[in-house]
Amino acid sequence: MGRVTERRRVTRIRGGAVSARPDTLVAEEPMEIRLNGRPLAVTMRTPGDDFALATGFLVSEGVLARAEDVRTVVYCAGATDDGSNTYNVVDVKLAPHVVLPDITLERNVYTTSSCGLCGKASLDAVRTTARFPIADTPPVRVSPALLSALPERLRAAQKVFDRTGGLHAAALFSEDGELLDVREDVGRHNAVDKLVGRALREDLLPLDRAVLLVSGRASFELAQKAVMAGIPVLAAVSAPSSLAVDLAAETGLTLVGFLRGADMNVYAGEHRLAL
Fold first, then answer.
1. Could you give the CA distance from residue 81 to residue 84 in angstroms, rounded to a whole number?
2. Which residues contact 215 (CB under 8 A, 6 or more apart)?
3. Does residue 4 belong to any structural domain of this protein?
4. What is the CA radius of gyration of the chain?
5. Burial 36-69 (b: 16+ CB within 10 A, else e)
6. C-beta of residue 45 within 8 angstroms of C-beta of residue 168
7. From edge to edge, which strands make up the β-sheet containing 254-260?
8. pLDDT over 70 (residue 235)
9. Where would one find coiled-coil regions in this protein (predicted)?
10. Counting Cβ atoms within 10 Å, is residue 113 exposed (0-12), middle (13-18) or buried (19+)?
11. Across the strands, what pairs with 101?
C-alpha cells in the first residue's frame, strides 16, 4: 500500500530566505482492530503491515501465541456508511480452539501513537498472562560491545525515516548481532507489534534468543510487549520509565536504556550481559 508517506506544501525559511516547496511527511491514520467481528481497539498508525500490527497487538494482550491460533485476518469491506473499504479496519478471526476474551466497554481500549495502552493494567496482569516466562529460558549472553553497535545498524535500516524524519523504529537482532527484522511506524509500540505479528505468522514465538531495540524511550507498554513475546533483552536509545523497570525486574527481562555509543545503563537483568 502506497500510503506510508504523503506530500504537503511547506514554507521554508533558511538563513532568512523564504521559499515554498512540497515536503514528504509520514502518514498517520487510525486503524480499528476487531476480534471475531467485534471492535477491540483503535490505534493511530502508519499504514502498512496492518495484519502484523493487529496480530502482534493480540500477542501482547495474551490472546495469541501461535500461528495456528489465527483463522483469518482481513480488511473489513463496507467499513463506512457508503460501503467503501478504507483499509483502516482489520478483523482477526480466531481459530476454534482459542478462547475469545471478554470484550466489554471497560476492556475496549484506545491507543495512540505516543502512549500505547493508555491506563492499561498492572504488573500483576502481565505476569499472570505471559505465555513465555523469560526467567525459565536458557540465558542469552550479549556483550556491551555488541549492544553498542546495534543503534547504528537500526538507523541504517530506517528507509522511510530518511525521507520524513518522523518515524520510530524497532528491530529484532540475534544474540550475535544479526539484524532479523526492522519495522517503522509513527507509534513506537506499533513498530514492535508489527515485528511480533510477523514473527507470529512465521511461528517463531517465543523470540527467546532475540534482542529488541527501539529508537526512543522504553515505556511500560514496550516492556510488556517484549515480555509477552518472550524476548529476553530490550534495549532503548533513550530512558525507560519507572514502571518499565519494575516490570523488567518482576519478569526477568534485561532492560538497557540510554544506549548511545559505548555508553548504556542496565536497569534490570544484568546477568545476560557479558561484563
1. 8
2. 151, 154, 155, 158, 168, 169, 170, 188, 236, 237
3. no
4. 19
5. eeeebbbbbbbbbbbbbbbbbbbbbbebbbeeeb
6. no
7. 179-185, 168-174, 210-214, 233-236, 254-260, 263-268
8. yes
9. none
10. middle
11. none
pLDDT in the model for residue 119: 40
CATH number at residue 49: 3.10.20.10
Q: Which residue reads 509500540 in cell numbers?
A: 189
Instruction: Indicate if the alpha-carbon torsion angle 133, 242, 184, 194 is positive or negative.
Output: positive
Report d(CA 93, CA 90) in Å as an integer.
10
Q: How many residues does the chain have?
A: 275
pLDDT above 90 covers a percentage of the chain that reads 63
Domain extent at residue 63:
29-121
User: At what angle are helices 188-201 and 50-60 packed, to 10 degrees?
Assistant: 90
Q: How many CA atoms lie within 13 A of 120 on its CB side?
A: 24
Residues 147 and 265 in one domain: yes
- Name the residue with cell 502518514: 27
pLDDT greater at residue 100 or residue 108:
100
**Residues 114 and 138 occupy one common structural domain:** no
At position 130, the amino acid (one-letter code) is: A
Residue from 103, 115, 123, 239 carrying the catalytic annotation: 115
Annotated active-site residue 115? The verdict is: yes
Q: Does residue 187 have a pLDDT over 70?
A: yes
Region 9-35: mean pLDDT is 88
Distance CA 248, CA 224 (A): 9
SS3 percent helix, strand, coil of the chain, rounded to 5, is 30, 35, 35
Least confident of 17-31, 74-88, 144-158: 74-88
